[in-house]
Amino acid sequence: MLTARSGSPRVWYLLPIVALALVLLLSAGAGNTAANDSSLDDLSAPNQTNSDSIKVIAPRGALEEAPEGFTLWHDYGSFALYRTTSEALNALPADIRAQLVEADQMERLWFDSGPIEVETAIQPEAMSAMSTTVTTEAAAENSDEILHLVQFVGPIKDEWLQAIEATGANLVQYIASNGYLLWADGLSRSLLDEMAAEGEFVQFSGPLPPSVKIGPALSARLAAGGDLDEPVPVVIQMVSHKLEEESEHTIADLAQSQESSWAPVLKFQNGNFTVRLGDVEAIANLPDVYWVEERLERELLDEVQGQIVAGNFNADQSGPASPGYLAWLASYGFSTNPADYPVVDITDDGIGNGTTNSGD
Asked: What are phi and psi of 187, to 5 degrees?
């Protein structure tokens, strides 16, 4: 009790000092917060998302020292990638600005069906909800392998591709601009998503949406509300992998007929089928299918080509004069007797003695 009573005056004596310390601490915290807020606009942090920032490519020597508002992001030797703002770019002298290329196309991934804006590319609601044996959406929710997209912040460096492969993802094909199609499992995709979140050299990571797998001709049919039971000849392209037979069986079950066996094409395989128009989306939603398009019948158009090359156009010069290429040739006195023309036979017969001095 004596200790408590004798200590009480000391506690009350210290209270003003403690209060003062708390005020100083809170002020310092507020100052740090303000500093942190201002750092969000600092272009020296390339992984920060800044809606006002733009990318520019400058040839070597164009920007000897980064002007105010410019930050060197990645150096390629003969050129460099910078981050800046429209205000800083407009402040440059005209002769310097003329040497720079504003790289706004680097925010898109290009497909036949149209460009994907990476900022809004793949939202959960954009994934198809169609029911198939194994869908892209279902595969993306677990560790199954699917076709996956990444886009880099600028022109691709070899070490960036090596970092992608280090996640376990397989490189399939380059996608303009500065993108890559990958075959990746769940662990690889999570690592790729982390890279995109960091933003140092990957700016986008997401599954390939089924909508871009359907070619323009089939997309037009579907958009026009065509007969879903109509048989349509198609070519289907899917990535080659160890478990491809599962999708092959699914496609075979959906197809009305198969006109060719699967044929390897680089890291893909192609097959010709006839399917119901209504099954096209289900096929596109398979995780390893990359492309589905109508297989159009080939037409003989040699006369059109011949007329254009010959400069034989219609009256208003809007197209080749047709029909009449044979008549046009005859008007110039060309014989219709095959015997009047020499036969030239050029043959590599393979005869030689295995040296460059064979005398043949």
From this structure: -65, -45
- pLDDT tens digit at each of 360 positions of the chain: 333 333 333 333 333 433 444 434 444 443 443 333 333 233 333 333 445 789 999 999 898 788 889 999 999 999 999 999 999 999 999 999 999 998 877 889 999 888 888 876 543 333 333 333 345 555 555 568 999 999 999 999 999 999 999 999 999 999 998 999 999 999 999 999 999 999 999 999 999 999 999 999 999 999 999 899 999 999 999 999 999 999 999 999 999 999 999 999 999 999 999 999 999 999 999 999 999 999 998 877 677 777 888 888 888 888 887 777 777 778 888 888 888 888 887 776 655 666 666 555
The whole-angstrom separation of Cα 211 and Cα 122 is 11
* Cα 185 to Cα 29, 79, 148, 207, distances in angstroms: 43, 35, 9, 11
How many Å apart are CA 357 and CA 348, to the nearest integer? 17
What the block records as the tokens of 278 is 């209504």
Q: What is the DSSP string of 224-273?
A: TT--TT-EEEEEEEEE--TTHHHHHHHHHHH-SEE-S--EEETTEEEEEE
**Residue 4 φ then ψ, to 5°:** -65, -45
Position of tokens 């310092």?
A: 28
Q: For residue 177, is the peptide bond before it cis, meaning its omega torsion is within 30 degrees of 0?
A: yes
Residue 143 CA to residue 217 CA, distance in Å, equals: 33
Q: What's the number of CA atoms in the CB half-sphere (13 Å) around residue 273?
A: 24
Burial class of 322 by CB neighbour count within 10 A (0 to 12, 13 to 18, 19+)? middle
- Plot region of 147 (φ>0 → left; ψ -120 to 50 → alpha; else → beta): beta
The three-class DSSP label of residue 155 is: coil
pTM (2 d.p.): 0.67
- Cβ-contact 47, 39 below 8 angstroms: no
Distance CA 57, CA 174 (A): 21
Structure tokens at 36: 């942190």
C-beta neighbour count of 253 within 10 angstroms:
9
Sign of CA pseudo-dihedral 110, 111, 114, 119: negative
